[in-house]
Specification:
Elements lengths: L5 H5 L5 H31 L7 H50 L2 H7 L1 H40 L4 H17 L1 H30 L1 H6 L3 H53 L5 H42 L21 E8 L8 E8 L4 E5 L6 H9 L6 E6 L2 E2 L5 H7 E4 L10 H5 L8 H10 L3 H6 L17 H15 L3 E5 L7 H14 L4 E5 L11 E6 L2 E6 L1 H5 L4 H22 L1
Parallel strand pairs: 3-8, 3-9, 6-7, 7-8
Antiparallel strand pairs: 1-2, 1-4, 4-5, 9-10
Helix pairs in contact: 2-3, 2-5, 2-10, 3-5, 5-6, 5-7, 5-10, 6-9, 6-10, 7-9, 7-10, 9-10, 14-16
Length: 586
């Protein structure tokens, strides 16, 4: 029955006072039970004695009632102590997982995945809390309870006391065969549950695609198959649990029967009084009550052991590197953003960026272009501090970003990604994520800058209009415009647009690019785009190719000389011209 898991013990910081309290309260209940058994045994044993008086009867009844009150109060306290332990465990585990996710860099957060986080933070926490609130306290209690009962019964009949304490410690060891097999099944159960959850969430996210290709029937059959496999795992566990409980209960009742037979022999030869036999009868099962309690907790806690692997994988994942406050003062007096010899690679793959130099002058519009996989988004993640360069430096206003804490960096530079995250609620709620104290006038001003004020005002609820579940009531262009308005409200002097118009309609794209052009009057803007026609007005264009800076300069400069930029512009112009001709002649 021993289920000692290092990972779970490591996660139990702060819970031990409550676990110990729970074990102590259970011992108090046992003491009350023993006292109640002693009172009733004495009452029944002396009841037919001619010398038994009414006063003795009343005293025995009052004594039994006092112990019964102790047992009742103890059982209530056990429930309260378990609740305190559960609450603490939930807060500790869920808070730990959430805070770890918030400390992870962007790559770390993406590699964790949605499904592992959902299962670890919901069912995983549910399973883990049983280990702390039930198993550990039951383990401590099962170690102490037989010892306490042994010292009570040894004065009545030592051989029975020795036999019962030996059986109480032997039965969990004999049941370990079932525990090992149950542990294997529970791991399979947890993996099956996670796979089923993953498939279900994936089906919901891709429901439109599934319907579009008329694959909902196949998806349903696959889901039914996975659910059936998961159900079979549950049934296998239930069968094994039934066998384990049957085996354990058989040993328990046989042990109690042996103890009673021994006491009957003692009564028969006149070596024990009836009250002693009744005491042994009432306390024999108490030797094994802690064992059954531990067994119940063990079978439930095994799921927690399986879940702990997933939770530990998240909690032990390396966080984003901490900053060095002393570095914040190291500035060379320059302004703007500068990357000096920056290199980066993902895992053991080849370098995504190699010795990249980049200069974004204050108040300028800078563009970063290149084919897919050239390192544009990686450079954006480095600028935002989501990942850390393997080599080189990134400076903002002359300050090495390695010395900037994340909140300070977010005050200086803000990202408008390819897909803006919209939360359920109103337009105002989504905008105030960037500026919680902004009034309606400030929100409308930001919306006006992104060409969304007229549409917002025209809505029946204005700024309080509901955007739907995750922005379902908004078009792609409206989502991006709210993202840009959110960036403006943050007050950051540097704005980074990472393919911000790649998923919007042509009209919204034109409006967004017009907005970006206007922003250069008050902000420093870096644009990452695959549409070269949209970056012609940039003061400086950097061309990335295979992780290095292949070219840089203004549009006219780059077009005036041979190179990748002129080649790509020519190819894109031809493709757009061909597309227009097809439309005109269609």
């Amino acid at each position: 029955m021993l289920l000692i898991n290092r990972t779970l013990l490591r996660l139990s910081r702060g819970l031990w006072p409550r676990i110990l309290l729970l074990a102590v309260v259970k011992l108090v209940v046992l003491m009350g039970t023993a006292g109640l058994a002693g009172s009733l045994a004495a009452l029944l044993g002396d009841f037919f004695d001619p010398r038994f008086s009414g006063e003795q009867f009343r005293n025995a009844i009052f004594s039994a009632l006092r112990f019964a009150a102790v047992v009742l109060a103890g059982e209530i306290l056990v429930g309260e102590a378990e609740l305190l332990c559960i609450v603490k465990a939930r807060r500790s585990l869920f808070g730990g997982i959430l805070s770890k996710l918030l400390r992870l860099d962007a790559v770390g957060a993406e590699t964790v995945g949605v499904t592992p986080v959902v299962t670890a933070a919901t069912d995983g926490v549910e399973a883990l809390q049983i280990y702390y609130s039930k198993y550990l306290s039951s383990l401590l209690y099962s170690l102490a309870a037989p010892v306490y009962l042994f010292f009570i019964l040894r004065d009545i009949y030592l051989p029975v006391a020795v036999f019962l304490i030996a059986a109480a410690y032997a039965i969990p060891l004999l049941s370990s065969f079932f525990r090992k097999k149950t542990e294997r099944l529970k791991k399979g159960y947890w993996n099956g549950f996670q796979q089923l959850t993953s498939y279900y969430l994936e089906s919901l996210r891709a429901l439109t695609t599934v319907k579009l290709f008329n694959r909902d029937g196949d998806r349903t059959l696959s889901l039914e198959e996975k659910a059936g496999n998961f159900n079979r795992r549950i049934m296998d566990m239930m069968k094994l649990n039934f066998s384990a409980f049957l085996f354990t209960d058989t040993l328990i009742y046989l042990s109690v029967a042996v103890a009673l037979i021994l006491m009957c022999v003692q009564i028969g030869n006149g070596s024990a009084a009836l009250s002693d036999a009744l005491m042994v009868f009432m306390l024999s099962y108490s030797f094994f009550a802690s064992v059954r309690q531990l067994m119940n907790a063990t079978h439930q806690a095994i799921t927690g052991v399986a879940a702990s692997e997933q939770a530990a994988a998240i909690l032990e994942r390396e966080s984003a590197p901490s900053h060095s406050p002393s570095d914040e003062e190291k500035t060379d007096g320059s302004s703007g953003i500068e990357a000096r010899g920056v290199s980066y690679r993902y895992g053991n793959r080849r370098e995504t960026l190699r010795k990249v130099d980049l200069q974004i002058a204050k108040g300028s519009l800078t563009a970063l272009v290149g084919q897919s996989g050239c390192g544009k988004s990686t450079l954006a993640s480095l600028l935002m501090g989501f990942i850390t360069p393997l080599e080189g430096q990134i400076l903002i206003d002359g300050v090495d970003c390695a010395g900037l804490p994340p909140d300070r960096r977010r005050e200086k530079i803000v990202l408008v990604p390819q897909s803006v995250g919209i939360f359920s609620g109103s337009i105002a709620d989504n905008l105030r994520i960037a500026a919680p104290n902004a009034d309606d006038a400030a929100l409308l001003e930001a919306l006006e800058q992104v060409r969304l004020k007229e549409w917002t005002v025209a809505q029946p609820m204005g700024l309080q209009s509901d955007v739907g579940d995750a922005g379902a009531k908004l078009s792609g262009g409206q989502r991006q415009k709210i993202g840009i308005a959110r960036a403006l409200l943050s007050g950051a002097p540097y704005l980074l647009f990472d393919e911000a118009t790649s998923s919007v309609d042509p009209e919204s794209e034109r409006e967004i690019w017009a907005c970006i052009a206007d922003l250069t009057a008050s902000r420093t803007v870096l644009v990452i785009s695959h549409r070269l026609s949209t970056v012609r007005s940039a003061h400086r264009i950097y061309v990335l190719s295979e992780g290095v800076t292949a070219q840089s300069g203004a549009h006219d400069e780059l077009m005036a000389r041979e190179g990748l930029y002129r080649q790509w512009v020519t190819e894109q112009n031809e493709m757009e011209r061909y597309g227009e001709e097809r439309v005109n002649h269609g």
